[in-house]
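Here's what a typical entry looks like (Chaperone protein HtpG):
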Amino acid sequence: MKKFKTESKKLLDLMINSIYTNKEIFLRELISNASDAVDKLYFKSLTDSDVKVGKDELAIHVGFDHDARTVTVSDSGIGMTKDELEKNLGTIAHSGSLEFKTDNAEAQGDDVDIIGQFGVGFYSAFMVGKEVRVTSRAYGSDEAWCWVSDGVEGYTIEPAERAAHGTDVVVVLKDNADEENYDTFLSEWGLKNLIKKYSNYVRYPIQMECEKTRELPKPEDAGDDYQPEFEHYTETETVNSMIPIWKRSKSDVTEEEYNEFYKSDFHDWADPARTIKVHAEGALTYDALMFIPTRAPYDLYSKDFKKGLALYSSNVMIMEKCEELLPDYFNFVRGVVDSQDLQLNISRETLQHNSQLRAIAKKLEKKIKGELANMRDNDREAYEAFFEEFGRGLKYGIYSSYGMNKGELADLLLFYSAKEQKMVTLDEYVAAMPEGQDSIFYAAGESVDRLAKMPVVKAVMNKGYDVLLCTQDVDEFCFQAMMGYGKPAAEGEEFVEKPLKNVASGDLGLETEDEKKAAEEAAKENEGLFGAMKDALGEHVSKVSVSTRLATAEDAPACITAEGPVSLEMEKILSQMPDGGEDIKSQRVLEVNAQHPIFATLKAAQEAGDADKVASYAGLLYNQALLVEGMPLEDPVAFANEIAKLMK
């Protein structure tokens, strides 16, 4: 037995057990090696007129023997001589493919696409195999040689028989253990599944002997009670697609083909809403095919959802979901990216230089944003359906970045306009603002119908201003992170960002001078009344004041607003969280309508010294205002009892 040409057996152990994290990729590596061997022979046929090999003669064959516990990968490629077996397999980390690729760099492209580069992929077979036999016959040679090793000490090379040029790699699988079931590789379904997963787009046919069933002809003398009989047979079947759809010209692929690829590869029953095809050449050459789904997967907003695009290098899948290719706010996008230029690590499972990935990701993000903007502007119905499914993630992208992503995402957002009674963009809201409106107003709550009836919303709309009615839990947090919205000004124009204001927040600055003066006079004249109401309500409110937004007898008698950074809606959402929302409270203000008839009743009770009535009415107004806001009552029973007293 010959020893491996390395000073330490630890290096071999590293190759087998430490580089790769997933045992099933051994088949990917062996098929990639076979593809390289076939590519080398095809290249030789292009450069040497004496080599007569047609591309249709080149193939890879995968098979298994359940009884012998073997998996075999065979190719009709260039094969290896005894010396090449010694050099390529006996020397760890020597890559014949890399050597070939370097020597023929100018030919790498459409005709030749060498995959290997490190010379260690072959040794992944020892992750699942207790012995590996390689029988190879070089093109133009009459001799075949067999390399055998258990992956521990060394190897043997002996003369062998092979009918034609090419290589057979036979992996004798390890015995099953408590936590390892190697029998999964001894089935037609198991091997086909791995081929389709990792090597579906290898450029040469990958063939298997597949078991099939067919009905036997009905005998002529069969009676009326004849039952159909069937026979099992095997047939050679090409199990890979070979030509990836993302490398075909967009003009050569129909929409139906794109849709079928999406539904088949990404397991969706609905056609995608949009298909995005990208081909880039330059410092980085890559192809990308991305899809915007029609509907959100059930687990999109769960912690278990994993975003990412499938990453391929030279048509071989490297990562099923490469998270770095998509920002979190575009996590719903599905698709593939394929590039020969990526610098992979030794296991081809991760990347060495993330700068390459970041460059691709940045360009893909622009493509996705452009497609969404195009849908928004030219197919509004489709965009509104998309936003219903995925808009929450765009808003969260702004909130989670503390507003840093608002430049990329804010113009994609949609909100319901109380005035227009339809979904509008922030640009559309700003364009429709009347002269003199300096802020974008919004209200946050559970439903559009409920928000539209709120006194604080009606008060703003009575001033002639529109209000955005926001019904998702992330809306308030998104607007808090944005603080304002504005588009980059044209050359020579001043950039103006409109602040975002919750209509239930403190001072909106909408009152006229007369309304402001009247409120100040009412507050001064009834200072004792407001003090008594504050005492009655205690810590429930930070103060009781005269409202400038409720200024007529037809308006509501009172409303609840909030001072400070925590709004009423934020308090409600945070209180529903399992870990820590209970202690976060808004600074509530009870605003009283000094023009409402109830205020006269309150004044009369205060002047008569009826402190109980003032306290009771203060509690009733406060709880009524909470109900209108959709806030929970702290003591519903007490509120019901107070209502009952009034009904006696």
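The chain has 19 helices and 23 strands.

More examples are in the samples folder.
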